[in-house]
Amino acid sequence: MLGPFESLADAQRAVRGAKASSPGQPITVMIAEGEYFVDQTLCFGPDDSGTPDAPVTFKAAGAVRLTGALAPKACVPLKESDISDDVKRAVPEPSRSRVVVLDIPRINPDVSIKPVPVSLATGDGTVGFTSDILVPPEVIADDEPARMGRYPGIGGEDWLISGQPLKLQDDVFGQPIGQPDSPFHLEDDPTGWPSWKRWRDIWGDGYLYTDWAHTFYEIEGHDGEEGWIHCDGTSHYGPRPGQRFRFINVLEALREPGTYTIDTELGKIFFLLPDGGMPGRLLVTTQDKPLILCQDASHITFDGFILEDGRGNGIWINGGEGIEVTRCEIRHFGHRGVIIHDGQGHCVTHCHIHGVGGAAVVMTGGDFDTLTPTGHTAADCNIHHYGRITPCYEGGVCLHGVGGRVLNNHIHHTPHTVIFFYGNDHLIEGNEIHHYTLETGDAGAIYSWLNPEWRGTIIRRNHIHHSGTSGTGGSMGVYLDNCLSGNIIEENFFEHVTSAIVINGGRDNDIRRNVFKDCTPAIAISGLGMDTTPPWSNGMISIRDLFMALYNKTDVYASYKERYRGLDALEAYFKPGQTIDPDDPVRLPPEGNIIEGNINTGGLFLDIWTTWYASPDHLAVRDNLDC
Known about the structure:
It contains four helices and 56 strands. By secondary structure, it is mainly beta. The radius of gyration is 26 Å and the shape is globular.
């Protein structure tokens, strides 16, 4: 036995020495109970690695908190601060006696404190979900993230509604929509925002195009008398009438207890105290890097820690094999909880992950050409209330690659999708999923789309229940979108789900031995691939290009044909050198889907969207019980 050590860095050096003096022996490092501010990322590499028979374990002895937040150096009541009088007067009069001014602690003075998320060049954006985001400094009050002040208020119903844009164009469906840089009217609220004076740090937040495209909008102009707002046009989607929008970081609307705003010029936070008064523990998130980074490290276990309160990600694992994060609580990070990129056989097990700004767990890896599985696993975790800052396309678990596994997790209360699976041969089994799409629409509990070579995923024995209904476009259970094909959905239990399974133009999917209770419908299928109008005809060009890229890899394509039912049938629709004529586009029917041995009660069983080119002739429907 060695130690005790004053720091984790000292313990790391001792582990390396012990490996050299006693090779082949398992090593456990016990971390004493307490709170540890991580001012520099804890980095682990090949020199820190164990082996399959002799792993290295870092284990919490009691409540060990690794945090990326610090107490502010100053916390002064607004009236006693040296803030100028014109700024003090901007705070609503009823709030002034309860606002405190916080210094923003910063370990890196060059890092942005912009009040919206910013993309970082350090992220690897080449694969799936591995781009990196830095969120603004957040106030942590009694172990919960405070909310940035919003107008009008906080909550799913507290939105302004967009009116008519000033500059119009046609959208992809040929319908009028605002140009990306078009000012737009707000339909209501004639007495609120038009009176504001301090616009420098105010941003917009919402769904100006559609309910699956959340965006932060920089305010470039406004006219209170005419009632219009002008955003910067950084989104390639233009505004349309009737969509949700709100303002964020509005000092002049700081009325809800427990909320705050950031003044980027002063470098201060204005925090309106909760109803209970000054929190017993008040911190500001500071660390802009992951708390733990494993770079080409292997066979290390992190057991029993609380990781919390960073502006970016909690844990980043890149390369290596056999890293396990187990029995940890991972909470209140600004972006993602755990990112696993490449490598083999990494696991996140028995963890409680909640309150992160984006996705809870992201796993990428495997080899598309050889279909070698990555073996990454997320299992037996409780994951909830993620996506609180960037709500769309940030799942409880996001898979990209080959052979990821999502097993026996409880995932719930999320604004958008629960599990994204992009790639081949994933296994999604034994999960309980409920209360999803609580803020968005046209999304599902389990979702993937488009690529004709992404096949072989098994979605089995999950319990999916009580879907949300917040946005337009529907809330699905399993949503195979934009002609996704060749996957298996079996032995699941769907309960109180609108559109439990949707095959949106896909082929060769097996839907068998599922049970549906009070779902409307249980199964729906469209003929999206036969729609020759934009944008669906443009999507067919993308599908053709993806298929031909696979087809041109002769050996790879041969192995795919042997492995995946129905893939070779696409050769009848897409040919080498083919140019798809917009006046005579390819029509890809949703053939080869098998619906067999299912039980349905309390709702419509099968909805074949004949108005969208689907036909009973496209399906094999047999041995189902509809009662």
